[in-house]
Structures
1.
Amino acid sequence: MSEMAEMAECIARVSTSGVPMIRSSRVQDLPDYNGPIGLSGYAGCGKTEAAGFIEQAYGYKRQHIAEPLRRMLASLLRDYGYSERNIERWLVGEWKDGILIPELGVTSRHLQITLGTEWGRVQVGSDIWAKLWRIQAEVGRAFDGKGRLNDSVRFPNEEASVQQAKGFTILITRPGKGPAAFKWRRVGPLLYRWFGCMWGVHDSERVDRLHPDYVVVNDGTIDELHAKIAQVVRKAKAGLASASLRG
């Protein structure tokens, strides 16, 4: 596509969506900087879509902070005799939320949240996953030169691990999407639905405790979400690259 054609396409998209025009979202147009990026937001807000776009457009590699605990749970489910296909369905697929694991009587999401929070963060140490993610991100980038992307930032210290490594974080919101896990199964959802109260929301869902560098409202099409993410990434990477040169 020629530059004039690309510009015309951008103008046409802006005229219907109201999204600020971005000349190009290709990695070649960005400064030579690949610090970490963190995405946060409720389930269904668009984090996975945004992460896929960042990987494709900017050469980043997704490194989910829950990967270590998923490997732990995969080992448990193998010992119960489940096939690799069904383990994948429970841990990252269509069975994650709605299908109970028969022998355990809970969903995979419940297992992942409680293993990560009640066991890992509470019983072991609050930095257990954040430290591991940062180590793996640094090793991975040194190995292949690709910046790492955490598409599930849930706690302030996880957010800080990205920001302190000269990266930035994006909170994605979407109308109608809210917490998926609560401390009190009946009271928690009611308090949130009626009053927007976060007291009964599980700690892993408390996005109100985060201090993201940018907020993106995902209230349109997939193309509009991509355009908003591209605008944020371009601005953030340019600013951080300039800061690195000055520092």
2.
Amino acid sequence: MEGKDVINLRLNTVTAMAQKSKLQTKMAINRHSDYPIKVFPRYLQSLTIDNTQLVKLSYHICSLRNLTHLDVSNNKLRKLPVELGRLHLSKLVLHDNNLGEIDDWSFLNGSKLRDSLRELDLSANDLTCLPLPVVKCHKLVNLNLNYNNLTHLPLPYVA
């Protein structure tokens, strides 16, 4: 092999490694026009979608295996997909949505989410009762229920 071929090979390897190290791990979307049309970067660890009038959480978000922090504050969510329970989220921020209208909280029954969730923000959602699956999140350290209409709390779950 000539010297220039080896140099080109080394440069290509270094360039590829540099590109791989710059993988996008954080994303913040603050306008509806910034929302990705096709897919989200697959190595995302933190995703914030704030004040975009979002009414449904995309399946693509639920397939982001590295995601540990999801913030979908100030939107119009009325339902969350069961697939969300497959993520290893440590922080889930659902502040100021329309979640008080839903009766299906089964996404919190997903064992990966239930066993990894440490922070949950359900503030300003017009909740009248704390959803029972929240009680089953045993690693939960911080639970924000401010600005709701809670009238009662569920009895603790005994397994």
3.
Amino acid sequence: MPQQSRIAVIGAGLGGAAAAALLLKAGFNVRVYEQAPSFSRLGAGIHVGPNVMKIMRRIGIEDAMNREGSHPDYWYSRHWQTGDVMAKIPLGDHAIKEYGASYLTVHRGDFHALLMEALPSSAVSFGKQLTKVDDRGDVVRLEFADGSTEEADLVVGADGVNSCIREALLGVEPPKYAGYLAHRAVFPTPPVKPGMLPFDACVKWWSEDQHMMTYFVTSKQDEIYYVTGVPANQWNLNDRWLPSSKDEMRELYKGWHPTVQALIENTKEVTKWSLLERDPLPLWSQGRLVLLGDACHPMKPHMAQGAAMAIEDAAMLVRCLEEVGVSDHRLAFELYEANRAERASKVQRISHDNTWLRTNEDPAWCFGYDVFNVPLVEPATAAL
């Protein structure tokens, strides 16, 4: 029976929280170990496409998500200087009709809070920084920085780009700096003044080598977010994020459209983050350990699908465990990788190239995906 096997999820980010919620729904015995001392509302926005909303439906928070977020009718791509429309991708009612669920943008912290609320508090342990993992064949022993130890039958590594579980499987290897910085800011929506365009609910401003993505993060559209992509040749990987400033933003976006300038001038606080990647891994699991999300395939945020891939991973992993049974976890893990590697690698590649929706294209392959109903590919015949 599922509940007899102890499953440890390392990391309570969006992918880990989704994995735990789905495992609990399926009747598994789950515990999440998170290194942070408590949950906090981190200042960033996030896209939640229909491919993710179908999973939120299964978890039971789709309606709450729809109430929380902003529902753009279109994804616009605009020229950095003129504001001319380069692409106009229908979302809104079109997404519901064509892809089976809504497309929304929301504050990442509000999304994360809803996922965490879907978990009983007894299933989450905070302040648990994993320092060592030992797969002993019949059980996995976990050691934490606070001196405590735990045992589990299966361990899901949802612990991000510097995953301790990934290191246990493949050794220590730093991620690759992707050559870009992302500046992020959330603040009250500014007034529209002469010379500006009205704020699109979802728009990406493009120049040849950099961009700014901006969208509302609340249903009232009273809070707006931007995230940039700015080339920077060198970066110290020890600095995952640093404070930035209005002056730095003014310099980087000199000459851009007045609408972009208004966002910069109304910025309250802005940070800059290094964008990290990894080459596709030779394996996603070994023994009783399995990876998902950034632990497995970190990517640039240029498709706005990084968290979506982690959440899809979580749903497919649970589907495969239900399909095969935890008694044959190796086969379940092989089935999981066979049904995730090709899609995750495609999203990783397009995110790297930063071409997504720059011109009019059909995003149905991405947004219309249904992790619960897509036909499963057997491991032996999986596309490489």
4.
Amino acid sequence: MATLNLWADDLDAAAAWYARVLGVEPYYAVPGGYVEFRIGDRLDELGIIARAYSPHPQPDAPGGAIVNWHVDDVRATFARLLHLGATEYEGVVERGNGEGFVTAAVVDPFGNVLGIMENPHYLEMLDRGPR
């Protein structure tokens, strides 16, 4: 993944909400059009685009692909996201056979699905470093 882009009707509100969620300010912004954050262990890019610039009609309900961001504690992160104004899309689910894969997903206040995951495979790959 290089960049994950989300849509928002109110770009300023989305930028402020994600800055609070992520604990960092956007590193790049085009006023009224786009903001971008660098986050995580590899400084992945999370972009938020003003919905007015969408080249295609946007769905009325959240859905589509879910990108899961690795977190150290899904339950605590899920609770924090709900406290900050997200709504539940899928509650905490233990995946696999007790191998440590745990997921949950919320809908941000702007209609985007945001997945979170505890993923031992991700941590293993992170320990190996770049290839």
